[in-house]
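Following up on my earlier message about adenosine-5'-triphosphate. Here are the inputs again, as you asked, copied directly from the submission form:
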Amino acid sequence: KVILGIETSCDETAVSLVEDGRKVLISLLSSQVDLHRIYGGVVPEIASRRHLELIFPLLDEAFRNFPKEKIAAVAVTYGPGLVGALLVGLSVAKSLSYALNVPLIGVNHMEGHIFANFLEDAKPVFPALVLVVSGGHTDLIFMRGFGDYELLGETIDDAAGECFDKVGRVLNLPYPAGPVIDRLSKKGKPIYKFPVARLKEEGYNFSFSGLKTAVRVFREKNPDAKVEDIAASFQEALVRALVENTEKALRDYKPAKLYLAGGVAANSKLREEFLNLGKTYNIPVHFPSLQYCTDNAAMIAAAGYHRYLLGKFAPLNLNAYPSLMLGEERY
Ligand code: ATP
Ligand code: MG
Ligand code: FE
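Thanks, got it. Here's what our run produced:
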């Protein structure tokens, strides 16, 4: 069964055709980052308008080699994300579902990020511990099976990706700064010790706003420090905080597998440290290949396929939910 995936929750317009939740026939993406770069972040109004311009050419391209009459269902992100941006993908998905007379499937964007793993992982094992780190989320999740998520911890302020991007601004790097800091770090040394908040409460929550401020203050006081060294030191501190909580949950919950998901899962240092965790605790580790870490539609089609098998079809009046929670069902 071939599922058409549509993703427009933020600043990436994406469509994909995936067979049986695993075989990516095509994955197209038109990023708007250049458009938003001068503003240092995503401008919601511009994003929605651009999605509208980009979505049809992308669909035409996807259907050039695969006739649309042969798709089994349309899966679309219905939250979380920017409401205006979500509505563009949702309207197009509904129209296609109606015109082609195939089921409409609403997909949670964060569940999509997690399912990016299952595009490639031939052996999903549960229960699993999943760290979802993206532009808007930092969630540590105990996953007992597909669709069964327990949130163990989350950020109490900035998300990991947001922290990368804000520190990027402090260091005068282009948006999005995550990949740039990753690259610069390889040429620098983590010689500065930046503090990461240790939360006093029990549990697995994260806090990154203090780290961001520490880097800003350091930069102001040390204008001559090498940006490569600051980048490496910052990345080291942030990754250490992510790994510490993950390790704590590993010990407490004893999962059978460890997964990484979301845009920050592309970070080379974080990937390296996760492999180390796997070795130390003798459990398998999996993360998506780089192209499926950041926003894409193949992950939406993959999560959509899972819902397709369960018969979780959405009505044509499905709405967009900007703050949809993982595991929350709105239809
Ligand atoms: P959400 O998924 O929470 O709604 P989003 O969709 O905007 O947010 P993603 O597309 O998953 O976020 O990820 C984008 C984020 O990932 C950006 O903050 C970007 O800086 C960060 N990022 C991308 N590559 C890397 C990298 N190699 N190292 C660190 N951060 C990275
Ligand atoms: Mg994005
Ligand atoms: Fe995302």
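One observation from looking it over: The chain has ten helices and ten strands. Hope that helps, and feel free to reply on this thread.
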